[in-house]
Write a structure and sequence with these properties.
The chain has 3 domains: 3-245, 4-Layer Sandwich (Glutamine Phosphoribosylpyrophosphate, subunit 1, domain 1); 248-419, Rossmann fold (3-Layer(aba) Sandwich); 434-581, Rossmann fold, CATH 3.40.50.10490. The chain has 595 residues and is an alpha/beta fold. Helix content is 36%, strand content 24%. It contains 17 helices and 25 strands. The strands form 4 sheets. Strands 3-2-4-1-10-9-11-15 form an 8-stranded antiparallel beta sheet. The structure holds 6-O-phosphono-alpha-D-glucopyranose. Residues 297-300, 344-346, 349, 352, 395-397, 588, 590-592 line the site of 6-O-phosphono-alpha-D-glucopyranose.
């Protein structure tokens, strides 16, 4: 994963802005960090294990005109100061940061060592610095030394390098994100737009196979075509996100802020029906020619399951869904003209992008639902729409799940020709806005009960089976308590054996009467075996339970938008009570750019 940043400008002052950018990228990985800055020719590096604040926060680094930074989520090589980026060449004249994984780097390492290079880390990245140094020593000019090194690489990379004496950033991208930001007094690059919003809102989005040279006044981009470089002209795009959106304001954590943003986002989606109409029409017309397969990972996969349900229920559209990491193995049936709907918050999840590449190679059309502007998925899809949730910083996805579900609701409804969608979503938004405090209070109480438990089960039916999966995922990823989501009716075929006296079972009670009756049987089943049952349910229903949250959900199809919020809050408060940082759960990263 990892986040990278680079700044080159006319005046001194890159160090402070590099650190600001890195803090915005911390969600991509946070086991180690580092920056390299150059002023009068010498490159100075500060790096180490720990958070950005701890490693470079008050670093006494000489300021400079050009610099690069990195926040790491270890892949090649353990978490150690040596493996932290930036990596330097032997003579310290080339520094490199990298996001991605290089194939066959062991061979290059051996070759470099045989030529007398001394490598200090176990990383794949370090070879790049030594390759560039070797080319410079052979007499190549800086740009060509960099390009020659890049030509040797296989695998995924977003690489930024600085070279002693050059007021420039050298960039290369293949299968890992890299955006270029255009400023008044300099130019910038980073893994995503959010990292540069404090500097600019004008961006150029690099594509795979491109190399760029950034100086304070110029941006030049080339496409690597075999051995030759072809100059490319790319449009500048303005991004609507503002730096204020990256502020957690009065909230203790981004996750809590993002949970509270949901009513506002639902309203925004409700007011944008026209925006989604064109996409829905296009999807509908494509559906005449081929079958529909949804692909997504993590929380987006759960939204995709709800999407599959809504498309079937509302629009009579049959679809399949494949979890992204399994897509290569389960998609042999795809043909020319079939449609793949990719759902991703970041638009950068490597498994999703790989699925899309496979789909395209088979002649399928790719449509996508994305949150981050300019992300790779939007660039490789035939058609994309945005969920308009704004930047999401908490590693655990919350507001983007609700936004994805809402957009899938809108799209399914538009395909079916239903009306009243905007009104329905506005009502959900108002309902949530009015009940946030009581949801929070209930969730806190429940968290206090759950904090000492080893297992928690989440059971739902129909459209709320994926909601149960999402509730369990939220709890396990940020509180580290084992949690499992299950279809309520399937539970008796095995997992019921795990219920002991006091095992918590969170039951999502359907609005639909028939489904509700069945769920009540399931509640009895777990209760009679000693489960502590917590129901999230429609108001005014007599349901046997140890604790209940009554909601004003009035319709089965919109109930996930309501039931999800207390589940997110339960996970959040449980993590907080246990002293765990909900914004940065251990071992996880928000954007998983490795397969
Ligand atoms: C990571 C994140 C999850 C996210 C998943 C898919 O695992 O920790 O929160 O749901 O990636 O991300 P995407 O950006 O494709 O939705």
């Amino acid at each position: 994963m990892c986040g990278i940043v680079g700044i080159v400008r006319r005046r001194l002052g890159v160090a402070r802005d590099l650190i600001r950018s890195l803090k915005k990228l911390e969600y991509r990985g946070y086991d180690s960090a580092g920056i390299a800055v150059m002023s009068d020719g010498d490159i100075e590096v500060v790096k180490g294990v720990g958070t950005i604040e701890a490693v470079v926060g008050d670093a006494k680094i000489r300021d400079g005109y050009v610099g690069i930074g990195h926040t790491r989520w270890a892949t090649h090589g353990g978490v150690s100061p040596e493996n932290a980026h930036p990596h330097l060449s032997c003579n310290g004249e080339v520094a490199v940061v990298h996001n991605g994984t290089l194939d066959d780097f062991e061979g290059m390492r051996r070759e470099l060592i045989a030529k007398g290079h001394v490598l200090h880390s176990e990383t794949d990245t370090e070879v790049v610095a030594h390759l560039v140094e070797g080319n410079l020593k052979s007499g190549d000019k800086p740009l060509s030394a960099f390009v020659k090194a890049i030509k040797k690489l296989k695998g995924s990379y977003a690489i930024v390098s600085i070279i002693s004496g050059e007021r420039a950033l050298f960039l290369a991208r293949n299968k890992s994100p890299l955006v270029i930001g255009l400023g008044e007094d300099g130019n910038y690059c980073a893994s995503d737009v959010a990292a540069l919003l404090h500097l600019t809102n004008r961006f150029i989005f690099m594509d795979d196979g491109e190399i760029a040279l950034l100086t304070p006044s110029e941006v030049e981009i080339w496409r690597l075509n075999g051995d030759s470089l072809e100059k490319v002209h790319k449009e500048t795009e303005e991004v609507e996100w503002t730096p204020q959106l990256l502020d957690k304001g009065a909230f203790d954590h981004f996750m809590l802020k993002e949970i509270h943003e949901q009513p506002h986002i639902l309203r925004k989606i409700a007011e944008s029906i026209d925006y989604y109409t064109r996409f829905s029409e296009r999807l509908n017309s494509l559906l005449r020619d081929g079958s529909l397969t949804i692909v997504a990972a993590g929380t987006s996969y759960h939204a995709g399951l709800i999407g599959k349900y809504l498309l079937s229920k509302l629009a009579g559209v049959r679809s399949e869904i494949i979890v992204a990491s399994e897509f290569p193995e389960w998609s042999s049936h795809l043909r020319q003209g079939d449609i793949v709907l990719a759902i991703s918050q970041s638009g950068e999840t490597a498994d999703v992008l790989e699925a899309v590449r496979i789909a395209k190679s088979k002649g399928s059309k790719v449509v996508s639902i994305v949150n981050v502007p300019g992300s790779t998925l939007t660039r490789i899809s035939d058609e994309s729409i945005f969920i308009q949730a704004g930047p999401e910083i908490g590693v655990a996805a919350t507001k983007t799940f609700s936004a994805q579900v809402a957009v899938l609701y809108v799209v399914s409804s538009l395909i079916s020709g239903r009306s009243g969608i905007s009104r329905e979503l506005t009502e959900v938004s108002e309902l949530l806005r009015g009940s946030m405090d009581s949801l929070d209070e209930f969730s806190k109480k429940m968290s206090d009960l759950l904090k000492d438990k080893e297992h928690v089960f989440f059971l739902g039916r129909g459209i709320n089976y994926p909601t149960a999966l999402e509730g369990a995922l939220k709890l396990k990823e940020i509180s580290y308590i084992h949690a499992e989501g299950y279809p309520a009716g399937e539970y008796k075929h095995g997992p019921l054996a795990l219920i002991e006296e006091g095992t918590p079972a969170i039951m999502l009670v359907p609005v639909n009467e028939e489904l509700r009756k069945k769920t009540i049987y399931n509640i009895m089943e777990v209760r009679s075996r000693g489960a502590f049952t917590i129901t999230i349910q429609p108001r005014g229903m007599e349901i046997p339970a140890d604790a209940s949250l009554e909601t004003d959900a009035w319709d089965e199809l919109i109930s996930p938008l309501i039931y999800t919020v207390p589940l997110q809050l339960i996970a959040y408060h449980t993590a907080v009570i246990l002293g765990r940082d909900p914004d940065k759960p251990r071992n996880l990263a928000k954007s998983v750019t490795v397969e």
